[in-house]
Design a protein that fits this description.
Helix content is 38%, strand content 19%. It is an alpha/beta fold. Helix 2 links the parallel strand 3 (26-30) and strand 4.
Length: 490
């Protein structure tokens, strides 16, 4: 099969090659976090689950991610040596480690940049991830993996489409590779000095007037949107909202400009990890056909958190951030308690929101529990033990918590935005409200409270638990899009 700059020239492809492209396509995923090795939010979950789902479809998938000081999952990558990487007009060396599991090969980029206490939050984050992006082709080549397509995730890897098209010093087979960029949250874009970004990345000075330029500076996510062959977001409604200017953080004009290159593909969830019938963290297993165990999980959660009373339990499993609307929920606490709700708040984030949650729990410890920690096991118990889950996000690219809650028969009460609107049918498998306002949230919670413990609630619970949220559906759509940008029609 003939290759020109890494692209497959479909006019020269045989039927044997078509089958290889369709089922054995080599795809390189690049992400700043991949669960369980590293995770701060939904990006880590998606970058873990999607490659595995694609591998199950027959693709040859490799994932490149930083080798952070602390890797989760009780793993120790096998160190195979160093590789030279062009960076800032010089050559640097990075370490390369690798491991394989679930049919996917993971390659870790080692550098002092990533031997820090946290994944992000440093003044030089843009420099760190430019170096990471420059290293990706070199480390992939080092382990003998030349992909047919590169799939970059969020701003940390968004420079790769421009590098593949214009970067100097690329390994053989990488120049001109087709690329996909997935926007998990457009709020975070990776901005820096334009001249410095061009110099560090080894990109030609002519790109100062390209998609990389944004209001006098460089914008890595904008560059990815412009140079990638396909841009995806993690739900259809979020894609539409971005082009309409809702929460696009200044990039709506570009997203309208790229037109059909932008598509929304709904995330899935790991249905093996999130399975109330086989969950080792909950008090008693249950499923849609045998739901009695949910009551035992509720009682166990009440005992664990010191809650008393008989009202329904409303849970929160979230980052405490303005985006997530946690302030709306906390402002609604007195009204929710008056309706009969009891609250379970689990998450970390903004110090002011954490303080407000702690204060609400201190004021009424028998009806409000706050656990201001990141605790995966407790999250499982909250999903299983609560009756409903509040998701009052101001904007939500996709959201995983509402889909997990539905699988556990815990009805989401959510704002009708982004992926929440795509995954919840009001009064069928959850409840939706419109404006990001305390009153609208309270009204939705009142509607849910009036339905609780009625036959309608049990019907809704069954509908929610019957939903198919497996990643394979999403993976099939990604595969179809991969084939499209590579010109494969069979």
């Amino acid at each position: 099969m003939e290759r020109v700059y890494g692209r497959i020239m479909m006019s020269k492809v045989t039927e044997h090659d078509r089958l290889a492209v369709s089922c054995g396509m080599r795809v390189l995923h690049v992400s700043a976090e991949v669960a369980p090795f590293s995770k701060t939010g939904g990006l880590g979950d998606v970058a873990a689950a999607l490659p595995v789902a694609l591998a199950r479809l027959g693709l040859d998938v490799m994932v490149v991610t930083p080798w952070y000081r602390h890797l989760g999952g009780d793993v120790a990558p096998f160190w195979i040596g160093d590789v030279e990487v062009p960076f800032g007009g010089a050559v640097e060396r990075v370490g390369v480690g690798t491991l394989e599991q679930d049919g996917v090969r993971y390659v870790f980029v080692g550098h002092g940049d990533f031997s820090r206490a946290s994944l992000y939050g440093y003044d030089d984050d843009v420099v760190r991830f430019i170096r990471f992006s420059r290293a990706v082709p070199a480390v992939a080549a080092r382990v003998g993996f030349v992909p047919d397509l590169v799939h970059a995730h969020d701003w940390h890897a968004a420079l790769l489409p421009a590098l593949l098209e214009h970067g100097a010093g690329l390994p053989l087979g990488f120049a001109g590779l087709p690329s996909v960029l997935t926007i998990h949250n457009i709020q975070f874009q990776g901005g820096g000095d334009l001249d410095e970004v061009l110099r560090l990345a080894g990109l030609p000075i002519g790109l100062e007037r390209s998609y990389l330029h944004h209001v006098g500076d460089a914008n890595l996510l904008k560059a990815g949107i412009g140079f990638a062959d396909l841009v995806t977001t993690v739900s259809p409604t979020y894609a539409r909202e971005l082009t309409e200017g809702a929460h696009a953080f200044g990039l709506d004009e570009l997203l309208r400009h790229v037109g059909p290159k932008l598509v929304g593909i709904l995330n899935g969830i790991d249905t093996a990890l999130w399975d109330p019938a086989n969950d080792p963290f909950i008090a008693q297993p249950y499923d849609r056909d045998a739901p009695a165990g949910k009551a035992a999980c509720r009682s166990a959660l009440e005992a664990e958190l010191g809650l008393a009373g008989a009202g329904p339990l409303l849970g929160v499993v979230s980052r405490f951030a303005d985006q997530k609307g946690i302030d709306l929920l906390l402002a609604a606490v007195p009204a929710l308690l008056e309706m009969g709700w009891r609250l379970v708040l689990l998450g970390t984030g903004d110090a002011g929101l954490e303080a407000a949650a702690a204060a609400a729990a201190r004021a009424d410890p028998e009806r409000v529990a706050a656990r201001l920690v990141h605790d995966e096991a407790l999250a499982h118990r909250v999903y299983a033990g609560c009756d409903a889950l509040a998701v009052p996000s101001r904007f939500e690219p996709c959201g995983l918590s509402q889909m997990i809650a539905q699988r556990y028969g815990t009805l989401p009460i959510a704002r009708a935005t982004g992926g929440l609107a795509d995954t919840i049918r009001h009064a069928q498998d959850g409840f939706l409200f419109g404006p990001a306002e305390v009153g609208a949230l309270q009204e939705a919670c009142a509607t849910a409270a009036s339905a609780f413990a009625t036959p309608a609630w049990e019907t809704m619970r069954g509908e929610a638990m019957a939903l198919d949220r497996d990643w394979q559906t999403s993976a099939q759509e990604y595969l179809a899009r991969y084939r499209g940008i590579m010109g494969v029609t069979t």
